[in-house]
Amino acid sequence: MGSSYACPCGQIGASKKPLAYAACCGRFIEAYETTPAPDAQSLMRSRYSAFVLERADYIRATWDAANYPPDFAIQPGAKWLGLEVRATRSTGPDSAEVEFVARYRVDGRAVRVHERSRFVRSGGRWIYLDGDAL
Ligand SMILES: [Zn+2]
């Protein structure tokens, strides 16, 4: 896959066009070691894109180790339909919440994930802590 395709997270750029993957979540997913997502919403978006692209390595790396489910696996065969970020709220100098709706289809069934996720910044990196289903 090239890197000029539209980013799975659906972020719209200043030109009102969808951002390319390489200019959006690809910056963080493809250069995890050197380029951390700069804020909680960017991390959240990049985690959604990593689900779409089945980058389980990135999902794991950006998940608080104490909360990472030992049996975690990306749902096979899921067709992701889109991400809608509803709200982003700073809850402290190194913590934030992002409310989002993500949709996917699997086995002919539509699934809607509505969650308020909590993120913390640790060692200069934002990571996913946990979330509440809404
Ligand atoms: Zn993106």
Can you put this structure into words, describing what you see?
By secondary structure, this protein is α+β, with helices and mostly antiparallel strands. It has three helices and four strands. It has a single domain (21-133), classed as Roll (Nuclear Transport Factor 2, Chain: A). 17% of the residues lie in helices and 37% in strands. It has a four-stranded antiparallel sheet with strand order 1-2-3-4, with helices on one face. A hairpin with a 2-residue loop joins strand 2 (95-106) and strand 3 (109-122). The protein is globular and about 40 Å long. The mean pLDDT is 95. Bound molecules: zinc ion. The site of zinc ion (ZN) has 7 residues, from helix 2.
Summary keywords:
alpha+beta; about 130 residues; Nuclear Transport Factor 2, Chain: A; 4-stranded antiparallel sheet; 3 helices
Q: Report Rg.
A: 14 Å
Share in β-strands: 35-45%
CATH-derived topology: Nuclear Transport Factor 2, Chain: A
**SSE order:** HHHEEEE
Tally of separate domains: 1
User: Ligands in the structure?
Assistant: zinc ion
Please give the share of residues in helix. Answer: 10-25%
CATH architecture heading: Roll
Q: Can you count the helices?
A: 3
How far the N terminus sits from the C terminus, by CA atoms, comes to 34 Å
**Under the CATH scheme, which class?**
Alpha Beta
Inertia-based shape: globular
Strand ordering within the main sheet: 1-2-3-4
Q: Report the strand count.
A: 4
Q: Main sheet? A: 4 strands, antiparallel
Weakly predicted, low-confidence segments: none
Indicate the structural class.
alpha+beta
Specify the oligomeric state. Answer: single chain
